[in-house]
TrEMBL record:
Lineage, uppermost ranks: Bacteria, Pseudomonadati, Pseudomonadota, Alphaproteobacteria, Acetobacterales
Species for this entry: Komagataeibacter nataicola
Cofactor(s), names only, from the UniProt record: heme b; FAD
Stored PANTHER family: FLAVOHEMOPROTEIN
Function: Is involved in NO detoxification in an aerobic process, termed nitric oxide dioxygenase (NOD) reaction that utilizes O(2) and NAD(P)H to convert NO to nitrate, which protects the bacterium from various noxious nitrogen compounds. Therefore, plays a central role in the inducible response to nitrosative stress.
Protein name: Flavohemoprotein
């Protein structure tokens, strides 16, 4: 068991909060510069998040949250679980942690200069390894569970693209079947797969994609939106035909529906944020659930993925749907039984009028969409325990760091 931090160490960490508020981003930027100089460590990261500064911003917020909550680390439980799940998806191992320690402590000393006294450096060393040991312990539990699960595995497993399906102008689905022909671990609806990809001209890349299929034992499906100038999304859409073999780690993630599912449920998504909800809806449909509300924003009817599936579920009474087209005015014919279409984005004012405090809300989409949606639900009196959301990227938005 990890020994608790002593009072002196916690006091020093708390005293560093103003310095982190002022220099946290500089510290994490320097940390990643040092860390990514090692090619073996570099390959563990999504480099696109480095180019746009998203990863350093997200880590700066996480370090600041850790310092602010050093006396009440229970408040960080959700964040710790998300980090552990992501680490497992990327096959992070205990031997990787010393590299991060050296880079972080070196960055603190570099940025703070003479203000980084021996006492401060000692406190941050203890604080880092305290959290690292918690993460290592939790990650080991997840790895053991994956190895023991029927169809489960640890590490990278080769999967073949057995089918490609165009879902919209911007989204293509890839069905993935294990090369060894053996069963796969049944995922929990809402989980994602992590991929180690070799992209010509770019080298090794890491990505996470939500599973969009209902739980099963033979295959998985991911549904990928083409992103403007997206290194991996462009490659998947343009250069990965059926038969391509991809390296995949076991399903991970804590943004899950669970069993039994809470009721009633509202799914709120924008863009490709719908993908985990398609998996959840598949599981609910298998159980003949009803009373689900599905609210989704997309650009146009042409970019609406899984539209026929949603309308089929609505037609048989499983759900009612509100579909918002941010760049188009829907035709009246696009409305159907249980489906209402709207011109423009879903606004906080519209959502505020629709709030039901007895409902559990699941939210997935770009950070700005999630931030506005969560704020509206909280202002409307929905308890935090009934607001569940998934991150895209690294959640470099202070309002989304738990």
């Amino acid at each position: 068991m990890t020994s608790p931090l002593d009072d002196k160490t916690r006091g020093i960490i708390k005293a560093c909060v103003p310095a982190l508020e002022a220099h946290g981003l500089a510290i994490t930027t320097e940390m990643y510069r040092r860390l990514l100089a090692n090619p073996d460590i570099r390959d563990l990261f999504n480099i696109s998040h480095q180019k746009d500064g998203e990863q350093p911003r997200a880590l700066a917020l996480a370090v600041l949250a850790y310092a602010r909550n050093i006396d009440n680390l229970g408040a960080m439980a959700g964040a710790v679980e998300r980090i552990a799940e992501k680490h497992v998806g990327l096959n992070i191992l205990p031997e990787h942690y010393p590299y991060v320690a050296d880079a972080l402590l070196g960055a603190i000393a570099h940025v703070l200069g003479d203000a980084a006294t021996p006492e401060i450096m000692d406190a941050w060393g203890k604080a880092y390894w305290f959290l690292a040991e918690i993460l290592i312990g939790r990650e080991e539990q997840i790895y053991v569970a994956h190895a023991a699960a029927p169809g489960g595995w640890v590490g990278w497993r080769p999967f073949r693209v057995s089918r490609r399906t165009v879902e919209s102008e911007t989204v293509t689905s890839f069905e993935l079947t294990p090369v060894d022909g053996k069963p796969v671990m049944r995922h929990v609806p809402g989980q994602y797969l992590s991929f180690r990809l070799d992209v010509p001209g770019y080298g090794s890349e890491r990505r996470n994609y939500s599973i969009s299929s209902a739980p099963g034992s033979q295959s998985y499906r991911i549904s990928v939106r083409r992103i403007d100038n997206g290194v991996v999304s462009d490659w998947l859409h343009d250069s990965v035909p059926e038969g391509t073999v991809l390296q995949v780690s076991a399903p991970a993630g804590d943004f899950t529906l669970g069993a039994p599912a809470p009721a009633p449920i509202v799914f709120l998504s924008a863009g490709s944020g719908l993908t985990p909800f398609i998996s959840m809806l598949g599981a609910l449909d298998a159980g003949a659930a009803t009373g689900v509300r599905y609210i989704h924003t997309t650009r146009t009817p042409g970019t609406e993925a899984f539209g026929p599936y949603i309308r089929a579920l609505a037609a048989k009474g499983m759900l009612c749907a509100d579909l918002f087209y941010s760049r188009a005015t829907p035709e009246a014919a696009q409305d159907a039984t249980g489906v209402t279409t709207h011109a423009g984005r879903m606004t906080p004012a519209w959502l505020a009028q629709e709030i039901d405090r007895a409902v559990t809300y699941y939210i997935c989409g770009p950070d700005g969409f999630m931030r506005d949606t969560i704020a509206t639900l909280k202002a409307g009196g929905v308890p935090e325990s009934q607001i569940r959301f998934e991150f895209f990227g690294s959640a470099a938005d202070a309002a989304l760091v738990g």
